[in-house]
Amino acid sequence: METKTQWTRNGLGFAAESRGLKFVMDGKPADGNDQGPTPKEVLLASICACSGMDIVSILQKMRLDLQSCDVDAQTETTDGHPAIFKLVRIQYMIKGSNIKPEQAIKAVTLSMTKYCGVTAMVCPTSPVQFEIFLNTEKIHDGKADFTEALQEKK
Questions:
Q1: Closest by alpha carbon to 72, among 100, 51, 54, 96?
Q2: Model pTM greater than 0.85?
C-alpha cells in the first residue's frame, strides 16, 4: 500500500494519490482553505467505509437480501497536542427483507472484533462504541475489541 501527498501551495491543502485515485485534504477554514476534508475526517470516514465493506461482504456471503448499509460516525478530539479521538460512536443502519437480527449482529461484531483493520489501529488510543439498527429498529449496542484477534498475530 502506498499513498503520495503533495502540498497544494494553497493554505494547508495536500493532494493525495493512492492507486491513481486522487483526493485533497485541508484544514478547516480557521487554519486552511477548506479544499477538502481534514485528515481526521478522512480517518473517521475510513473507519466507516472499512467496517461497512466487511459487513456488506459478510451479509452477501450469507446470501441475504441486503438493500442498504449506511454507516455514520461521530467523535470529538482531545484538547492539546496531539489531539486524538476521545470516543468514536458508530451507527450501522442495515436494511434487508430477510435479514435476522442475529445475522446483522454477527456481521458487525465480526467487523468490530476481527476484520476491520482501520478500527483495530484506532482502538488502542480511542475507544469505539457502536449501535446496530436493522430496518430502523435498534437491535444491539457493542464495543470494538480486537484483543483476541491481535493476540493471534503475535
A1: 51
A2: yes
